[in-house]
Amino acid sequence: MLPTFRTFLLALFLGALLAPAAQASPGQLSIMMDDDLLLYRDDGTATRTLTQMKSLGVDTVRVTMLWRVAAENARLTPSEIRELKGSAKTRARRQARRFRGADPATYPVRNWDRYDNLVRKANEIGLQVYFNVTGPGPRFAHADAPRSQRRNQGTWKPKAGLYKQFVTAVGRRYSGTYRDENGSRTALPRVSFWSLWNEPNQAGWLSPQWEQRGSSRVPAAPAMYRELHHFGYRGLVASGHGGDTVLLAETAPLGTSRPTSREPMRPGLFLRELACVQPDGTLYSGRAASLRDCGDFDRRGALKATGYAHHPYTKNVAPTVRNGHPDAYTMANISELGTLLDNLSAKTGGDIPSGLPLLMTEFGFESNPPDPHSGVPLDTQAQFNQIGEFMAWQNPRILAQAQFILRDVAPVRKFRKGSKPYWFTYQSGLFFQRGLPKPAAFAYSMPFLGFLIGTDPTTGTARAGFWGQLRFLRNGVTDSARIQWRPRDRSQDWTTVGEPIPVDPRGFYEAQRSAPLPVPGEWRAIWQTADGQVGQFSLSTPIG
Questions:
Q1: Which of 335, 331, 322, 325 is nearest to 270 (CA)?
Q2: What total of structural domains would you count in the chain?
Q3: Do 251 and 112 belong together in one domain?
Q4: What is the pLDDT of residues 207-229, one digit of tens each?
Q5: What angle do CA 472, 504, 480 make, to 5 degrees?
């Protein structure tokens, strides 16, 4: 028997739940990300993972095309080559001479295998691949960090021109016409969904976040990212992907107010600086604009993108709980992110694209078990995930909601068992590390929320509102959900209440129902197979 849990919904959801369906996001994509299983195990694990994701109802897999991995040993620096000996040094010199950053054929051919195999298998299964092409890059692709910043060397000041070459190489390889050199030697499937860099407001991906320039301490990461996006977009255009889906930013939701090279920058500040807009809403000018490289827009034009990617984590509090700082954007205040983008577009005359749809491309909650430090209880994880899904669905500007990740990552076993460093890895999976499903796995496949909206005036029984999705169905299938009720003391079996509820092309539905009896009860949604059998049912929720 699946566990039951009490769904938490605030009254603010009532209006959205009862609003016409046209107000909700049309065709919302279900995105999932799990690089560990898809890229860094073996082909068999990747295939099983893709198959499982598809069975749960995933539409698109987000995959990190990590510059450092794809370009490993492609062009070692002179100092790196000097450390080698014998034939290894000879091979490295030969490889460095033949390397051309924009030509995928000049990279070590095995470097592409994990991506080639994944794209090919996803295409066979019917999943869309979405590449986040990002640093950190190889050593030659970054400027030398000063001695005081050596800990940031891995992400320090990536070279935008070289990034353009790398994006071009990736775009050419996945253009739909490029032939795999060492696999099937057939053309690799085309990828048409991209984002450029990951979490540029975090030093773990881009540093320095702040920098001393002359007598002023200024944000550095927004200017670097502006240049990276300009050049990365040119790389996509050069490789035939100018008409594809291209997302801006992939920002992290939180940050601090400390202006250091490593402290994360809140997305609100990051975006204003990206657009060269001051806190008072006016454009930077003069020396302040020069310090922020705002002349990029005059030299290179507006930033080009078809959507804005964001990671609206709330960590271990409900999606309805907003962060205390206005420049932080989590699921609770995600509409304000759209408002900020529109305002920046208006103030800059379109240097930030206007009307960008929002895509939530990472989201999830760590669970306890296994993580006693950062996790929420298992039922709460399932509950929070579903509330986040509903909040995304009821916002017409949000075109996608993501789940990070499918399966928990193994702990860091070099640390004391049970300690916080031991659980440093991600435990936000729908499944435990060894594959046992959490309640969140069932909730993901068939999300279902309900809450009391009043009393039926005729019968005096509880009346409830419901929202859900048959995510596991193939998109576009004509089908329906049924709502069932039983007394909370389970003195009777489940009873279907009302007529079947048609679902939209993505499997979403909403409805209201009155309980059959004036006693406390619990509700669930079911899906029936063609022969009338219960094929799948949601986690139940007590109401009344």
A1: 325
A2: 2
A3: yes
A4: 999 999 999 999 999 999 999 99
A5: 65
Owner of token pair 């060269």: 276
The verdict on residue 223 lying in a domain is yes
3-state SS assignment for residue 255: coil
Tell me which residue range forms the domain holding 477.
Answer: 448-543
Per-residue pLDDT tens over the stretch 417-473: 999 999 999 999 999 999 999 999 999 999 999 999 999 888 899 999 999 999 999
281 located within any domain: yes
User: Could you say which DSSP state residue 437 is in?
Assistant: B
Q: Domain boundary at 339, 356, 373, which?
A: 356
329 with 472, same domain? no
Can you tell me which residue has the tokens 């080698």? 84
Packing angle, helices 267-274 and 221-238, rounded to 10: 70
Neighbour tally for 144: CB within 10 Å: 11
- Residue ranges for the chain with pLDDT beneath 70: 1-26
What's the DSSP call for residue 474? Answer: P
The answer to whether residue 414 is domain-embedded is no
β-strand pairing of 501-502 with 521-528: unpaired
Question: Pairing state of beta strands 501-502 and 480-487?
Answer: antiparallel
CATH number at residue 519: 2.60.40
The answer to whether residue 475 is domain-embedded is yes
